[in-house]
Design brief:
The chain has one domain: Beta Barrel (Lipocalin). It has four helices and 17 strands. A hairpin with a 5-residue loop joins strand 11 and strand 12. The longest helix has 19 residues.
Length: 282
Amino acid sequence: MPGCLLRRIALIIAWVATAIVLPPSLQAQDTDDDENLVNYAYASVFGTGFYRAGDQTVTVLRLPFSYSLREADDEYWGVRLLLPVTAGFHDFDTGSALEGQTADDVATLSFVPGLGLEIPLSRRWLLKPYANLGLGAELDSDEYSYIYVGGVSSRYRLPSERYALTLGNGLFYAGYTPDNGESDGFASLATGLDVVYPLRFELGSAQAGIGTYFIYHLYLDDPKFAVSQDQSTTLDDEYEIGLAVVPDSSFRLLGIRLQRLGLAYRFGNELDAVRLVTDFPF
């Protein structure tokens, strides 16, 4: 199994991602802003990565734990229990984390369990509806929020003799209701194309190729993000480009099943991010 080698690659990727998206002037920046770049509701769906908007930076660590209750086959739909845990860090020092030190600046923590279905519509087409409901808390205060996410994604494998081509589409809504405030949320529509080149090089005991994808994200109700202490920006849409190593079979890292390992760059109106890629996100 390539697990040991992939763990080393993951640490290298985390270090490289920090250097790319967070210049030194921002990596140690202090902020007392009341409005965060990515709150726990948004972090629950944005995934692991380093995000920057204007003067604001945040690191999101999302652990997508899950458990298969039933695999999909010709007779039954697949059923998966979703158990994601997400932490949001402000002014996060990746070097300290790799040395085993605990971050003092964890801003939010959430657990949003849910249920996902895997519905094979044909040999090429897979539909995946899902729904999550959970709780998020700001660790430096007594505030908490109920978080809810629901949506559907699909994958369609395009016919190709040389490459593995997959068309992905998704629609979801993510929202939250704080214990002492008004509810908020946003909806997003995404479409993308994934291409895996079967280079057949060895990664540990597995054969692997190189995968690349492009995704367009359209936000249907223009969520807002803080770019400074006094200003915010509206996000209309984003573009995402990913590159990853893709083994010929899934593997586990820290108990999480992964399909690939790499980096993605995501950018939009005054918001950019480097994300960890563990699967084609549909």
